[in-house]
Amino acid sequence: MFQRLFGRERNANRAITDALYAQIVAAARQTVFYSDWNVPDTPLGRFEMLSLHIYLVQHRLHGEQGVAAEVAQVLIDEFFLDVDHSLRELGISDVGVPKRMKKLARMFYGRTAAYDEALRENNRVALAAALARNVRPDAGPWPQASLLADYVCDASRKLAVQPTESIAAGTVAFPAAEAT
């Protein structure tokens, strides 16, 4: 699988992966999330928003075949490499990184299951509850969870109509999060 994606056209495919990942990171770093919607501007808060945006692209590409499926896998790999790198930058020791990576991977896949179920059922209340549980677990009531749930639903709809070919070529578009 990687031979086709990263064989002879390695540089072109690396550029596609880098472009997609940069767009995902930019969407996850929208200022509104942290300034107006009270997502914690901490390593864990940023992990939550990046996880959410990676999930949205994975959700869009789920069930695709060929290059699109390969792109989805490479993006997941890139995400976890980035998380590993971030842990090391935070000063986590070589011995501690694998344990933290396992925990963060469990967190990511647990969240994707909750978000999938809520989106499949078109249940914004359940989605807002899952987001609040994950993004601000110790904060008590979080009124902005419904705003984030609306954003996720909007992003999911907009991603659903983006051509697979466009995403596989390195372009993914997220909606702008708007202040209230």
Automatic annotation (TrEMBL):
Stretch forming the signal peptide: none
Domain of life (superkingdom): Bacteria
InterPro entries: Ubiq_cyt_c_chap, Ubiqinol_cyt_c_chaperone_CPB3, Ubq_cyt-c_CBP3-rel
Domain Ubiquinol-cytochrome c chaperone: 36-174
Stated family: Belongs to the CBP3 family.
Alphabetized PANTHER family for the sequence: UBIQUINOL-CYTOCHROME C REDUCTASE COMPLEX ASSEMBLY FACTOR 1 FAMILY MEMBER (PTHR12184), UBIQUINOL-CYTOCHROME-C REDUCTASE COMPLEX ASSEMBLY FACTOR 1 (PTHR12184:SF1)
The protein's name: Ubiquinol-cytochrome C chaperone
Species whose genome carries this gene: Mesorhizobium atlanticum
